Amino acid sequence: MPLSGHCLCKAVTYKADVEAPLITAYDHCDDCQRQSGSTYSLVAVVPKDKLTINGPTKSYAGQGSSGKAVHRIFCSECGSPIAHDPEAAPEIIALKAGTLDVEIKKNLKPDTEIWTASKLPFCQEHLAKPFEHMPPPMSSGVLHIVDSRTKQKYGIPIRRNVISAIDLKSIKAPAAGTDRADHVADGLRVHDPGLQNTTVIESAISYSDHERGVLLFRGYTLSQLWDSDFEDMLHLLVWGTYPTIQQKKDVNRKLTDQMLAVPDSVHRTIRGLPRTTSPLPLILAGLSAYLACFPDTIPASTHASLYQGNLRNVDHAVIRTVAAYGVIFGLVNSHRKGIDFQPPSQENSYCANLFIMAGLLDRHSSRPDPTKLSCFRRFAMLNAEHGMALTVFSALVTASSLTDPISCLISAVAAAYGPLHFGATVSAQRTLREIGSTDKVPEFIEGVKNGRTKLFGYGHRSYKGLDPRVRPIQSILKDLDLSKNDYLKITERIEEVASADDYFRHRGLYPNADFYGNFVFTAIGFDPDIIPAAMLTQRIIGIMAHWREYMSADLDVTSSQINLTITTYMICQGIAPTLTGSFADQAGRRPAYILCFLIYIISNIALALQHSYPALLVLRAIQSSGSSGTVALASAVAADVITSAERGTYMSITSLGNILAPSLGPILGGVLSEYLGWQSIFWFLAMSSTIFFIPLVLFFPETCRTIVGDGSIPASGWNRSILNRWISKRPHRRPVLIPSASTEPALQAQLPKRRMINPLTTLSLLFHLPTGLILLSNGLIFASYYAITAGLPSQLRSIYGLNDLNIGLSFIPMGAGTLLSATFNGIIVDWNYRRMLLAPILILLYALTAPATNPPPLVLTLTLIFTISFNLTAIYNILNILLVDLHYTTPATIMATNNLVRCFLGAAATALVHPCIQRWGVRATYCLVAIVVLGVVPLLWMSLGTMLCILLYLLWTGAVAQISPLPADIPILYFRYPETSWIYPGDVVLKSRTGDLPIISSRGLNPELTYLLLFFDLDVIYGMNATVALHWYQPDMLCTMQDTGLMDMSDNTRILDKVDGYSNGGILVNKSMGAEYIAPRPPPFSHHRYVYLLFTQMGDYQFPQCYSYIFPQTAKARAGFDIQQFVDLARLGAPVAGNYFIVEYDGPVYSVRGFRSHGFGGGEGM
User: Fold this and answer.
1) SS3 readout for 693-737
2) Which of 254, 374, 587, 1112 could serve as 1117's disulfide partner, Cβ 3.0–4.6 Å?
3) Major facilitator superfamily (MFS) profile domain location, by residue (predicted)?
């Protein structure tokens, strides 16, 4: 019997169509204790789709342990809790078991406890299955197997309801006495003909729930994509996002360009074959001819990694392949019909061009029939992708050899023409002709049941119910008006008879997309034998999406694994110098250099050969240890061989690598990866480091004063260079001093006392005064530098609209600033040593360029980037010099400590800058960075040159914080609230004064025009995402003058306030209703920018209906507002005026729980 229950007042009832709960448990979490008012809550977990709730309910949403919302449902009459619905587990819902009917409650057998971490100590009852938090998901676990042959037990990991076939190879038995063909000793194998229960890839392109008949494309339902064009679907499936209007135009333009670029030899190849030829060989010939024209696109002819991991080549190849197949299909169809081929046009969509090329034109207009074109477009959406279908699988099998997409498509075309795939449409047409009339359908069905004949297009190996594409296809057929089509009547009669027959129902046999799909193509005008090829013009979207996903997978790593790699690299980068620094100070610079170079070279070679993520992770850690280990050595060598008066210049040069590498590395790495693949980066690093390593081994002398003193004591063992060894074996006019038994004691007496190699020495320096404070200062300054450079790309993109390449090139000034600083600042420090400074000149130069209240020109921003890099390098070098001066006997150790602090604080700053910008805004974040730098100024008075750089640094951060979110050179839209003065860009206004509608001035506006206003918050945190929230959409705004007769407008004209002198006698009033005004609601301690933009509203303005959801005054309706998309769809053009201001929260500050309950519908800071 189903589970049923009700609330206390019985106003709410529910029924779950299940025999028993999935889990009956005691829930000890704090939230459930509070909601139930008891020590724990008894819950009965049931499938959500099996539950029906009737009656007046309300819900309260709070954040669960997963970070996602938990909706707690209760009766709105008596307040009884009914259930809680977690967003983190959308398949289930937890009923409050106390509300179940009495007889059902008596039979409950709770055996599970969850959230025992919150269990109250006086609860003495213990159930069989306790879980500290939540039970592990049923999609993961361990499969326990007992091999009856050997009695051996095995545990096979289950991940996402899948076991690895490789894991089964560990199940082995003795091969003695067995058939050698069974390969018993090699481990257990899996036999699955047709891959009926085998997964071969993980993909995010589509999802199908076979039990419920749900099909999603990148998370979108079929109904959401119903009006999508071919270009929309291509961009969505291949590149993972639904395109903007501009992106869609770009895709269409690129496709048309490539269609026009198909060589004439392809045309001649197809035209040279008989018109009666089957479409399959014609298409295969066309594709082969196209591929022959571009041998440089074949990896076997050029480079093995032409596509693997090279997304630029992959993306270009996707466009070329889709375009080429469209042209070849058009050529084949027009050739077989005996009509002239018409080329595509830039003015048409892809589907329209396909119709034109294929000769599917209306006889009267010579244009594609709009109805047929619409039907083809909608069917293309349904047919664009269907998981691991035969065409995709065939293409991926070919792609596994890393070949080109045309070759993969050839495999897919050949597979598609089989009678068990797209070729089923041809077989279905033949079967319908054989049946002849609806009267013979029952006889035909009996023949199917007896196995005498086959019913094509019926049943699906995946779907247990009706194919979710069938009903949409039937709606397309209605638009094509096939009411007189006899074959369609036969098809509908087959479904009618089969759906009533137990034979089909018990086996879960229902029509699939092919059953009705062929009628769409015949009604459009395609011959039956070319329908498979026509369907491939649509399915090519999915084929290319899977090909791109396969080629871009490379090491098959996730974003979290990439972050793990970076984190591991930075940890090793900070720790390794603590070992090499102490080692170099005691054992010598030369052995430390040799060891680090060998580690680095070998790890780079291994990385270049890797195709395994775990191995790459380990090797990156080793590589980091080798490279960062040398960081301390360069400064140590400089300290060994130079005097303190020269230290500024030489230490500046030695620090170049630390500062210059982050600037030039992305540029060089991007070029290598773009054209040669990511492995080439490691080959380049291995070869370039080897080039430096060879002369180091041959010529580099030992400089460590612990080993060679002031250089007068010869080195021995591996501290001697090969050149020195070679010279010592040759006869010399001047004797070379070689340590001997007699000279060794005397020479060693001249050396500083050598100690044991101790890595902890590096850490102990953190607690020395003043060394520790200087290290902290250097680390904080470097962290502030990383904070600015980490936030810079997003600012360049949002303010100037730069793409990734241009953003990368914008870092060139940073490299230039580093180079100049290494020379210029080194000279300044040396002069400072002689008490000579040029500080006033540099301060004056920067003062002329620093102020920037509006978005500065890009050239000024690049100048600021140069300035910050110049000054950071200067500060870093000065503090390095100071540290070496303080620890001149152990320079490698102190520089290792410096690197440790720098790496860890820099990593922390990089991780925090974006959340801070989202939380507090750009200005507050970088003002905080400036305060951090200002806080270490007292420690830097030892060098006036450092003080100069700090001042320039503070000025730069202040300039960054002043960047306005408004477009450049936009006129100011003057407005005020009833309790404020007129507001200027960047003003701060108290939240309590923004509750009423603002008074908007008509100053500078044309009284003859109509205007449209948008008011939005740029800095909302909705759920877990930063987004934009719309606060007010007001069309039909008019200028009204105080001395005119406009004051007696119709009742729906709202006069916002009396006109005053500042607005020149005029204000803007709204003539009609829009999306109602929501007052700013920033949360406490936040920094939100609120922006007004005014647009000219043209006479033919139409509100984009796709934005009709914005009218409710709720966070759900207003959050996620895409400003640019709305402006494009509404055809508003550029804004004519704008303003922005900061709202400061001045209300009561609640506790965390109270703040959530007083928030605006879950949107933090609307």
Assistant:
1) HHHHHHHCCCCCHHHHCCCCCCCCHHHCCHHHHHHHCCCCCCCCC
2) 1112
3) 513-947
Fold of 975-1164: Phosphatidylethanolamine-binding Protein (3.90.280)
Would you list the DSSP string of 495-509? Answer: HHHHHT-HHHHHTT-
* Planar angle of CA 146, 151, 156, nearest 5 degrees: 30
Read off the pLDDT of residues 232-259 as tens digits, 9 standing for 90 and up.
Answer: 999 999 998 899 999 999 999 999 999 9
Fold for 565-724+758-961, please state it.
Growth Hormone; Chain: A; (1.20.1250)
Q: Which of 257, 235, 232, 279 is nearest to 377 (CA)?
A: 232
Catalytic residue, chosen from 31, 229, 514, 1019, is 514
More confident residue, 857 or 1114: 1114
- Please give the pLDDT value at position 328: 97
Spatial neighbors of 220 by CB under 8 A, at least 6 apart, are 236, 242
Peptide bond into 770 cis (omega under 30): yes
- Whether residue 971 is preceded by a cis peptide bond, meaning omega within 30 degrees of 0, is no
Cβ neighbors of 44 (< 8 A, separation 6 or more) are 3, 21, 23, 24, 94, 95, 97, 100, 108
CATH code of the domain made up of 424-529 = 1.10.230.10
Q: Token pair for residue 513?
A: 């997309």
pTM: 0.51
- Asked if residues 508 and 201 have their Cβ atoms less than 8 Å apart, the reply is no
Amino acid identity of residue 1136, one-letter, is V
Report residue 272: phi and psi, to 5°.
-80, -10
Continuous segment of H or E residues that includes residue 568: helix 559-587
Could you tell me which CATH number the domain at 3-130 has?
2.170.150.70
Residue 1028 main-chain phi, psi, to 5 deg = -110, 140
Beta partners for 886?
Answer: none
3-class DSSP state of 1018: strand
Q: Does domain 230-415 have CATH number 1.10.3720.10?
A: no
Which amino acid belongs to residue 1030?
L
By the 8 A CB rule, do 326 and 357 touch? yes
DSSP string of 892-961, one letter each residue: HHHHHHHHHHHHHHHHHHHHHHHHHHHHHHHHHHHHHHHHHHHHTGGGGTT-HHHHHHHHHHHHHHHHHH
Residue with tokens 């790699």: 565
Going from N- to C-terminal start, the domains of the chain cover: 3-130, 141-191, 230-415, 424-529, 565-724+758-961, 975-1164
- Does residue 386 have an active-site annotation? no
Percentage of residues in the chain with pLDDT exceeding 90?
26
Write the pLDDT tens digit of every residue in 344-401: 999 999 999 999 999 999 888 889 999 999 999 999 999 999 888 889 999 999 998 9
For residues 154 and 139, give the distance between their C-alpha atoms in angstroms, rounded to a whole number. 19
Q: How far apart are CA 294 and CA 656, in angstroms?
A: 45
For residue 458, list its beta bridge partners: 511
- Distance from C-alpha of 660 to C-alpha of 681, rounded to nearest angstrom: 17
Element (H, E) at 515: helix 513-524
Q: Which two tokens stand for residue 342?
A: 């018409």
With tokens 């479409």, the residue in question is 279
Q: Which amino acid is at 129?
A: K
Most confident of 365-379, 479-493, 514-528, 721-735: 365-379
User: H-helix or E-strand containing 231?
Assistant: helix 230-239
Pairing of strands 129-130, 112-114: parallel
Residue with tokens 């090797």: 619
| Residue 216 scores a pLDDT above 70 | yes
CA 537 to chain CA mean position, Å? 29
DSSP label of 278: -
Total residue length of the chain: 1166
The Cα 965–Cα 568 span in angstroms is 37
Active site residue 514: yes
For the record, the structure tokens of 723 come out as: 């050149």
* Cβ(663)–Cβ(908) below 8 Å: no
Q: Give kind and range of the element (H or E) at residue 1164.
A: strand 1163-1164
